[in-house]
Structures are given as C-alpha cells and as structure tokens.
Amino acid sequence: xxxxxxxxxxxxxxxxxxxxxxxxxxxxxxxxxxxxxxxxxxxxxxxxxxxxxxxxxxxxxxxxxxxxxxxxxxxxxxxxxxxxxxxxxxxxxxxxxxxxxxxxxxxxxxxxxxxxxxxxxxxxxxxxxxxxxxxxxxxxxxxxxxxxxxxxxxxxxxxxxxxxxxxxxxxxxxxxxxxxxxxx
Length: 184
Ligand code: 5GP
Prior knowledge:
The protein is an alpha/beta fold. The protein is built from eight helices and nine strands. The chain starts with a strand and ends with a helix.
C-alpha cells in the first residue's frame, strides 16, 4: 500500500459528510471512498457518486465473498467499504473513509496503519438541531439516532484522534493538520 488510509467517523448529523466533501474538493491528493449501501437513494443522490446502491441480495453476496473492508447494519440498512475500490485508490492517493463509529475498529484490524479520527458534536442539543435542519428524517428516527449516542461515544477510545466539530472551517483545519502530519 503506497498511501495512507484515513477514517472519519462520528454519530449521524455531526457533520462528517460535509467535512469529508470539503477535504475531497480542496485536496486533489485525497480521494473520498464511495461506500455500498442497501438504503434507497435520497433526493439528489447519484449512484456511484454518493453511494453504490445495491439490493440486499447483492450486498450480502459481496459480504459473503469477503469483498468489503468492513460493513455494518445501521437502522435496517447495510453499509460497507468496498475493498478493491479502496485498495486501487490507495495506489495513487491518500484515501478518506467516512463511515459509522463501528467501522473504525474493523478497518484498523485489517489495516493497522490506518489513522482513525472520531468527530463529536459540541453538545447533544447541537446534534439534534443539525438532524432537524437536515430534514431527511422523521422525529422518531432522529430520537432513535440520538438514543444511540452514549454507545457511539463509548467507541471513541478505539480512535487515534478525537475532534469536536464546533465551527466548520476550524474543524476542517484541524482535520487537515492531522492528515498532513500523519502523511509525512
Ligand atoms: P446515511 O444513511 O445518512 O448516508 O449514513 C448512515 C450512516 O452510515 C452514517 O453514519 C455513515 O457514516 C455510515 N456509513 C456510510 N458508509 C459506510 C460504510 O461503508 N461503512 C460503515 N460502517 N458505515 C458507513
């Protein structure tokens, strides 16, 4: 493996998707991996860009064939990191994975040199506000996501860095500092 693998994890709504996209758009030497999922595309999402959208049968076929670096089930849908895709990108660039908090430890098991970054919200209220403003989920689903928070935060001990996403640009700079330092 020629380049470095970075994992950005954190609870839903913490801003990891936004930050991962900023990192990709501003840094030609960093690629953002595209995960596979069985969830249905949301408005504006494109197959092969936001996710590879798969049927459950196809996802499980790939999982059984050991074609994922890691995968997990999240609110009745499967999400997985395609191994071949990541490994071929690592030939030319550093690669960033934006995955849920369970994925980090699994990636580290397969790839001990991966750098794991855990993103936290400044507070539970801030996270609830972000999920409400995102307007992609019902009230029940938001509360269900928030109910998992204690469990999700308990996993930060498996991560190399913990970053609080307070102000977007400040957080971006902190993440880039970590990426630059670890790439030296
Ligand atoms: P969403 O449905 O909002 O796009 O994503 C739900 C959760 O799945 C997010 O926390 C996201 O980071 C996570 N996720 C996306 N891709 C992967 C993946 O490949 N593996 C794992 N473990 N989680 C993922």
